[in-house]
Design goal:
Layout (H helix, E strand, L loop, with lengths): L6 H14 L7 H4 L6 H17 L5 E2 L3 E2 L5 E6 L5 E7 L9 E11 L4 E3 L7 E4 L5 E2 L8 E3 L2 E3 L2 E5 L2 E6 L4 E10 L8 E7 L3 H11 L1 H11 L3 H4 L6 H11 L6 H11 L3 H25 L4 H11 L7 H21 L5 H19 L8 E8 L32 E7 L6 E6 L8 E5 L5 E7 L5 E7 L6 E2 L10 E6 L5 E5 L17 E5 L6 E3 L7 E6 L5 E6 L10 E6 L7 E4 L8 E7 L8 E6 L9 E5 L11 E5 L21 E7 L4 E7 L7 E6 L4 E5 L4 E8 L19 E6 L18 E8 L20 E9 L6 E6 L4 E6 L20 E4 L33 E2 L2 H4 L1 H7 L26 H6 L26 H8 L8 H12 L12 E2 L2 E2 H13 L5 H15 L27 H9 L5 E7 L2 E8 L2 E5 L12 E5 L3 E4 L5 H7 L7 E2 L11 E2 L12 H15 L2 E3 L3 H9 L31 E2 L4 E2 ...
Parallel strand pairs: 39-44, 58-61
Antiparallel strand pairs: 1-14, 2-14, 3-13, 4-12, 4-14, 5-6, 5-11, 5-13, 7-12, 8-11, 9-10, 15-16, 15-38, 16-17, 18-19, 19-20, 20-21, 22-23, 23-24, 24-25, 26-27, 27-28, 28-29, 30-31, 31-32, 32-33, 34-35, 35-36, 36-37, 39-42, 40-41, 40-43, 41-45, 46-47, 48-49, 49-52, 50-51, 52-62, 53-54, 55-62, ...
Length: 1340
């Protein structure tokens, strides 16, 4: 019998061994104790670690250190140490925000000299996130702990390890440790000092026992090197308990665990590990058997038996045996019945044999990329096997070395897998993007080629004929993600645009699709987008599908759109996902075979979080093109409803994870899968019946890019339609009033289209969302000009080819009715045609003659003084200098619009910072859904409202109005330039132009355009301020009226004199509306203290009493009558949005984005339903009810009254619109950017408790029992916007449509002076305003 030693005995023996070995080097090879079984190896190794530590009174460990705590001091004797190992551990709560630092760290020699740690060379330096930094944090700023700055120190982030060679030269190690200033309240770190690196020992254990170690560490909730320093069995016991909890029937092993837990410490470790191994065996079977589904296998057999060579009899018999054994096995494994284990293996073997008998695998050759991952094989995710490291990264950002991979041919798929190397890089480069030619004789792939750049290579499927395909004289260009075209050319993605992803300051290099001819080496760029193109692939019809990412003023975590185009770049269209939050990403899309098949399969993934892998989903654009509407099914969950979840990290925690699917048929797919966090990346056959069948996996490896070697029908060749001699393309729109973008816009409203060209961010250069302004956009917007819309809504015009453009439909004043928030690009000579404005791609355009179809394309009318980028300094400041600075000169309490010198933090002009708060715009991100027309129309801005009313007689010329509208519609930028850094030795602005001219015959000299315009301005001379004509003084009328005003007590009495003052009406079962009776009477309407449209005041008589809604109409009440309405959300500031914004569609919030026409239609429906005369209140009824006897600004006082108990207005809460971060949250009051994003004009002293539209009835009612008459949301009245004095019978209350309508009461965004009982706002009758709702009246 083999003798077993206790932990104490092992420690004693090891002590003798160590004492005997003089000069022993304490490395992992010496400490690690190899054994045949995992439990013994762990036990003996941990004992040896403890003995090694005990010789030097190590390890040293701090308690848990948190943000804000004073640094811990360390002082240790290291005179006998050969190396010093410094470890930071993020504790069991994880490593997010664990910004740790060793400060004032030093070694003192035996002669008393000090050697600073930051000056020493490390044998190893590791940080989980990024790299350790010396004397600065990761943002290259001084290290600060608990408010104190340290000049010396080593900063790490997450779990980290530093190893310093000592060789007995030093006497002491001293340091202070703590959480660096970048951390937050969740930061928690334990600092450890050791003499050996237990991480290397843990790696040896993982190398010998990969499966056991991966499962153990994932269930122990600790790091391997930390675990190896423990010796009390607690981690082993915790891991065992957690694994047992995952068993469907844990009782047997829970009993076993109680026995093990009772053992002494020196026996518990080994017993726990041995039991863990037994539980793991059962758990692994449980996981495998979960995918044995007799019903699914039966469906596959029924499908496969259509092939004459499929042995239906044999496999049906095997399926019956599976069905018989499965319930027995699923019970027996949990009590460790040996027969159950035998039968389990029989089931799994039979399942595999049946499903791999699929005739589609008869080709018996699959090309894959095998990645040798060693210890990390069960840890690595997609980036470890060749994908990009983020879902927002392009191939340019992928590392080019450090891989051990090869293209391999797998054969004998149904038996003992055979493997043959086709190609293996000799430079450690990755291999990716495998594309097999339709003839199945050659293969296209990406790896590192000339000049250390990404290039496309080709090799024959037998491994011969390797050569680099892409040959370009441009040594700075990369080519990757290639695909064959039926005409012999190829598509490749390239950095030819010199674009960088803007939200990371261009540090991620953008790739756009190019067309390349391998025979002539001709190169032409096809796509000109802001961000990356991914995964081009030829569809069954010969067109090309690809994934496009964009975030021109859109919610960029969700804006990856599946597109399709002709191989020459013409006829680009959305295929799936435009205007959708779900799915965030659709990577590795593959069309399903079949001539008329429109389905495709793709990997649905998130934005942040798990990279490039995710859920396997089958789509059909014919079924629908947005969110879940086109989902055929998720594989392997055929009966599961796919929820269109709005989530940044969409697939975090989702298992199994899939990568790189390949369609064998409409039903069967090869795919790379990792079935659980502890699994390997293996090759699987999956199907629409929910079968998931492993073909092969290799311990220590990951398999991806499965490519079956068989011939396929070559798709049809689509003839090229471009004219490369032409520098323009033609845009034809059949009817601008068709489509979601202009739904509800009355015909005749849109007079022109404004055409804007984008110029996108440069590589590794300033380009963030604040580069162009506060709540502005990401890109340079160059206004190319305007073109008239014909009377029937059609339009045809010329634009520059090869240029991303966006279109804005303009009203008669030149303001945008809608914002496109995307772009289109015409190829040379192409006619780009659209049905309308964001029409549904599944609708078929009705052929019809239009005015535009019978005419030659119009030329654009350029802006006055030429095409140029929109800037504040050169567009708006001259207007301010002429029209405003006579008063706004900085010499009074008014905003200073004169001083445009750079402000020190933002570098924006001071006048810009004073002016932009009066502009309502969407900012860099807003709701990804198609917005309602006029959502951000200029008339929703304070500035325009004031000017239109006649702000102190200031009048703008037509040209100035056009300039102002252009600036507002372009997101109110300050800058219109990029300051591009040099890259690869090139001036990027020049290099981009050079490549554009050479490969696309187009040049965009945005710098030259702007310079020319500046020279024109200078030539006009200095702008002289113009003092507007003096205003006529307000004639203060002594408008006296008997019994006006009256007290709240009188108001209550008069209300009750008419009988019941309250009634409730029912809108739908369970949905009611409370009405209060408003008595008749007379009052003085208007104000002499407000805007010019509020006077002259007049005596108005409300002749009849009426009933008025006690509250604004709520979402619940409105949707009870109009169920399809959704008030949606109020957009956040900043960027990095993970949801549509702040909810405005909760049941008890007031309904918004309801036009006057819709509000009146609601009233008409209620009139018919209730048999009563329901309507909107007239202006007179509204003001009479709002005042409820008061002649002051509000029923509760004047405009300077503390309104916090009475109204939801623009108050201190609006400061919380200043947000920051991913899933933005309010900035702290001390944040240096808060003053710049807390810009909405508001009360600085009052806090009413709500930032945005609140649930109705939270504030005090006025004397007549009406809630929220002031604030919350403004309210439609029945009345046309007409001058005062108010006259009841002049037709203003007739309900005619062409006139603007009046909204009253102000909203959460209005400060008191813009929300008084007399204040008026005017909007179009069809306009759906973000802060306007309504309440009803019932007239007697």
């Amino acid at each position: 019998m083999k003798k077993k030693f206790t932990l104490k005995q092992i420690v004693a023996i090891l002590g003798l061994i160590i004492a005997f070995q003089s000069g022993w080097s304490q490395t992992a090879d010496k400490v690690y104790m190899r054994a045949e079984d995992w439990a013994s190896a762990v036990l003996q190794t941990k004992a040896r670690v403890q003995q090694t530590f005990s010789e030097h009174n190590l390890p040293f460990s701090t308690d848990v250190v948190r943000k804000g705590e004073q640094p811990r001091k360390i002082s240790l004797n290291v005179s006998q140490l050969k190396q010093l190992v410094l470890i930071t551990w993020g504790t069991k709560d994880g490593t997010r925000n664990d910004h740790s630092a060793w400060v004032n760290a030093k070694l003192i020699t035996k002669s008393g000299e000090t050697v600073w740690l930051d000056e020493m060379k490390f044998k190893k330096e590791y940080a989980q996130f990024g790299h350790p930094t010396r004397n600065q944090n990761k943002q290259h700023k001084p290290i600060i702990i608990a408010g104190k700055q340290y000049d010396r120190g080593i900063y790490t982030h997450g779990n980290g390890e530093l190893i310093v060679e000592l060789d007995g030269q030093y006497d002491r190690f001293e340091a202070e440790v703590g959480i660096e200033n970048l951390g937050n309240k969740s930061s928690s770190v334990i600092f450890k000092v050791q003499n050996i690196t237990t991480s290397a020992i843990a790696n040896r254990l993982s190398q010998d026992f990969p499966e056991e170690m991966r499962y153990f560490l994932s269930h122990a909730n600790t790091e391997a090197d930390i675990w190896l320093t423990s010796y009390d069995g607690q981690e082993e016991e915790a891991a065992l308990k957690n694994l047992i909890a995952k068993l469907e029937e844990p009782a047997h092993f829970q009993k076993e665990m109680r026995r093990v837990s009772a053992l002494a410490k020196d026996k518990k470790i080994e017993a726990c590990l041995q039991l863990f191994k037994r539980v793991l065996n059962v758990y692994s079977l449980q996981e495998e058997l979960e995918w044995v589904k007799p019903e699914s296998i039966q469906l596959a057999v029924e499908n496969m038996k259509q092939d004459a060579n499929f042995d239906t009899t044999r496999y049906t018999s095997m399926l019956k045996e599976i069905s018989h054994l499965l319930p027995l096995v699923q019970k027996g494994i949990y009590t460790e019945e040996q027969q159950a284990f035998v039968d389990a293996e029989k089931i799994l073997s039979a399942r595999r044999e049946i499903l791999l008998a699929n005739p589609l695998l008869d080709m018996d050759r699959i090309l894959v990329v095998r990645h040798k991952l060693k210890n990390n094989a069960r840890i690595e995710m997609g980036p470890g096997i060749g994908t990009q490291s983020n879902n927002w990264s392009g191939h340019n950002s992928q590392r080019k070395n450090g891989f051990d991979c090869e293209i391999t041919e797998l054969s004998n798929l149904r038996g003992q897998i055979q493997s043959k190397t086709i190609y293996k890089p000799d430079n450690g480069a990755p291999v990716s993007d495998l594309q097999l030619h339709w003839d199945a004789d050659r293969l296209l792939f990406t790896t590192v080629g000339d000049n250390d750049t990404w290039q496309l290579f080709e090799v024959k499927t037998d491994g011969t004929g390797l050569h680099q395909v892409t040959q370009s004289e441009e040594k700075d260009l990369n080519f990757f993600d290639g695909t064959y075209l039926p005409n012999g050319k190829i598509l490749a993605v390239s950095n030819i645009g010199y674009h960088g992803v803007p939200c990371v300051s261009g540090n991620d290099i953008v790739g756009n699709i190019c067309l390349y001819d391998p025979k002539t080496h001709d190169l032409r760029r096809l796509n000109f987008g802001q961000d990356n193109d991914w995964d081009p692939i030829v569809m069954n019809n010969g067109r090309v599908m690809y994934l496009r990412w964009e975030y021109t003023d859109n919610t960029h975590y969700f804006s990856r759109i599946m597109m399709h185009m002709n191989p020459d770049g013409t006829n680009k269209k959305e295929l799936y996902g435009s205007g959708s939050y779900w799915p965030n990403s659709m990577f590795d899309a593959q069309p399903l075979p079949g001539k008329d098949n429109t389905q495709f399969i793709a990997i649905v993934s998130g934005h942040h979080g798990i990279a490039r892998s995710g859920r396997l989903v089958l789509f059909d654009p014919k079924k629908g093109r947005q969110e879940e509407k086109g989902v055929v099914q998720e594989i392997p969950y055929r009966n599961k409803y796919v929820v269109p979840e709005i989530k940044d990290r969409l697939v975090d925690g989702v298992w199994p994870q899939f990568l790189k699917p390949r369609a064998l048929s409409k039903e069967y797919f090869l795919v790379t899968a990792k079935m659980s966090p502890e699994s390997l990346w293996g090759l699987y056959l999956v199907d629409i019946f929910d079968n998931v069948t492993p073909i092969v996996q290799f311990e220590g490896e990951g398999i991806t890019e499965a490519t079956p070697v068989h011939k396929k029908t070559t798709p049809p060749v689509i003839p090229e339609k471009v004219n490369l001699k032409d520098t323009e393309s033609t845009i034809y729109i059949q009817d601008i009033y068709e489509g979601a973008g202009t739904k509800g816009v009355p015909r005749g409203t849109i007079k022109e289209l404004r055409i804007i060209a984008y110029e996108f961010a440069y590589i590794k250069s300033p380009s963030g969302h604040m580069e162009h302004g506060i709540q502005s956009g990401w890109d340079i917007k160059r206004v190319l000009g305007t073109v008239p819309v014909e009377d029937d809504g059609s339009v045809i015009f010329k634009v520059p080819a090869n240029m991303p453009i966006t279109i804005q439909p303009l009203d008669g004043e030149g303001a945008a009715v809608q914002l496109m928030r995307s772009w289109l690009t015409g190829m040379p000579g192409e006619v780009v045609s659209c049905v309308g404005c964001h029409e549904n791609q599944n609708t078929i355009a009705k052929p019809k003659f239009t005015i535009a179809s019978k005419m030659q394309p119009r030329e654009l009318t350029p802006p006055f003084d030429g095409v140029r980028a929109i800037t504040f300094e050169h567009e708006i400041q001259p207007i301010l200098n002429k029209r405003c600075v006579a008063c706004h000169d900085g010499k009074n309490h008014l905003p200073d619009f004169k001083d445009n010198s750079p402000e020190k933090v933002t570098k924006f002009g001071k006048s810009y910072l004073a002016f932009h708060p009066f502009i309502n715009r969407q900012g860099p991100e807003a709701d990804i859904y198609v917005m309602k027309p006029m959502e951000y129309h200029a008339n929703t801005s304070d500035l325009v409202q004031m000017l239109k009313k006649g702000h102190h007689n200031v009048e703008l010329s037509d040209e100035e109005w056009q300039t102002l509208y252009r600036w507002i519609d372009c997101n109110a930028p300050y800058n219109g330039v990029f300051n591009a850094n040099e890259y690869c030795g090139y001036n990027q602005v020049d290099r981009r132009q050079e490549l554009m001219e050479k490969y696309n015959n187009v040049k965009v000299d945005w710098k030259g355009e702007l310079h020319a315009y500046i020279e024109k301005l200078a030539a006009k001379g200095e702008v002289e301020p113009v003092m507007p004509p003096a205003e006529e003084p307000v004639m203060h009328q002594q408008t006296k009226l008997r019994n006006w005003p009256f007290s709240s007590k009188t108001a209550s009495r008069r209300q009750n004199d008419g009988g019941d003052a309250l009634k409730v009406i029912e809108l739908a079962p369970g949905v009611t509306m409370k009405m209060v009776r408003i008595p008749s009477g007379s009052f003085v309407m208007g104000s002499e203290n407000g805007d010019i449209d509020e006077y002259p005041r007049s005596k108005v008589k409300v002749k009849k009493a009426f009933w008025m809604g006690a509250f604004e109409v709520t979402n619940e009440q409105y949707t009870a009558v109009v169920p399809e309405h959704d008030s949606r959300y109020i957009a956040q500031f900043w960027k990095d949005h993970v949801n549509p914004g702040y909810p405005a569609n909760m049941p008890n919030q007031p309904v918004i984005r309801i036009s006057w026409e819709e509000a009146m239609a609601f009233c008409d429906k209620l009139s018919e339903q209730l048999g009563m005369q329901v309507s909107l209140p007239t202006e007179a009824q509204w003001e009479w009810a709002a005042r409820s006897g008061s002649e002051e600004d509000f029923w509760f006082g004047e405009s300077n009254t503390n309104f916090s108990s009475y109204a939801n207005l623009a108050d201190k809460q609006l400061a919380n619109m200043a947000v920051i971060g991913v899933d933005p949250k309010p900035m702290s009051e001390k944040h240096h950017l808060r003053p710049y994003f807390d810009f909405i004009p508001r009360s600085k002293t009052v806090d009413d408790g709500n930032m945005l539209g609140a649930e109705v009835g939270q504030y005090e009612a006025n004397p007549w029992g009406l809630y929220d008459m002031i604030g919350n949301v403004a309210e439609w009245t029945r009345t046309d916007y007409a001058p005062y004095p108010y006259k009841e019978n002049d037709g203003r209350n007739a309900g005619t449509l062409p006139a603007d309508k009046v909204a009253r009461g102000g909203s959460w965004r209005d400060r008191p002076e813009k929300a008084s009982s007399s204040h008026r706002k005017a909007f179009k009758s069809w306009q759906k305003v973000y802060n306007v709702g309504f309440r009803i009246v019932i007239e007697e």
